[in-house]
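Example record

Each entry pairs one chain with its bound ligand, D-gluconic acid.
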Amino acid sequence: MTITFPDGFLWGVATAAHQVEGGNWNNDWWAWEHADGTRCVEPSGDTCDHFWRYPADIALLADMGFGAYRFSLEWSRIEPESGEFSAAALDHYARMIASCRDNDVLPVVTFHHFTTPRWLASRGGWHAPDVADRFGEFCERAVTRLGDEIAIACTINEPNIVSLMGYLVGDFAPGHRDMHEYSKVNENLIAAHRTAYGALKAGPGNFPVGQCVAMGDWWAPEGAEDTLTRIRHMHEGQFLDASRGDDYIGVQAYSRTRLDAKGLPIGPEEGVRVVESMGYEYWPQALEVAVRHAVEVAGVPVYVTENGIGTDDDDTRIAFVREALTGLAACIEDGLDVRGYISWSLLDNFEWALGYAPHFGLVAVDRATQERTVKRSGQWIGNVARTNTLEA
Ligand code: GCO
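Structure tokens for the complex follow.
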């Protein structure tokens, strides 16, 4: 059976500054990678040297068949000290955006993807009382320089992971575990999204603005339905509520979370295949569940801004994406307003605390030579993008 996606459906690939640029020493993550006692397995270092190699990388993704590139601005380059803005750094991102346009690729620009400048981190990061205003000011400066050529903007990537992993679980910077702080950080992230939305809409250009939320499928034992609803609202729902009235919501889905009756995570179900590099369930159906839930709660158009799998087996990646896209097509068939699908990720890159072991890329990167090699799965997804059809 051949599935044809709607006319104008957007197909893209994604990266994030800290995961691919290299040398981002002026943010909280670099400090975190080098601090004692964290669970980071290795530092990011040069990563994919994408800061310098972006022209070839953008030409490559265009050649593979993609019409959009989602990447992020590194705040610590643009505002290296509080209130001090770098015109040269903004010029760099203007050149990246121009390079997208030259290749007929729509630039999908993320304004915050997990990393925060050191000057702000040292004042409390997302817990600092003025963080929403500071982020708003950064967005205003950046959009003034870049807005004319932006195609789609994402204010904050996975605010719910920033708060969960950084302030409750403690595996990401700043490594805190404090329920009270976590709640405050959620409030600040939502306020920052609203401030940023206003700043981006007020600047030059005219493009959709939204935020990208980490979502997935959920499971809890019978009788624990209320607990499941409460936990799901804490992780996803409060951010979906905050997306109402936005131009779109970015849905990012990879797997399923299972809870016990108390609402604590219990890990994969026995007998269900596990994505070894990440330790979570192989669960391509998560995307369809997430998209349906996002539409139900937020009630705005959807772009899938991330989906993919960290594996060395290309057949597995193809099978995973095929099933995820089949679920997405079912949403579209039911009339849901889904406008695009962006693969995570263009390149094998720095997977945060897990370092370089998980391979999410559609393109392999030789860590010694920086040589890029398009994977068979990358060719396959690129072909889906180019033809706007899927053989299901
Ligand atoms: C996230 C981020 C990406 C990850 C990707 C794979 O979702 O955590 O947006 O930076 O690399 O999701 O885990």
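Residues 67 and 105 are 5 Å apart (CA to CA).
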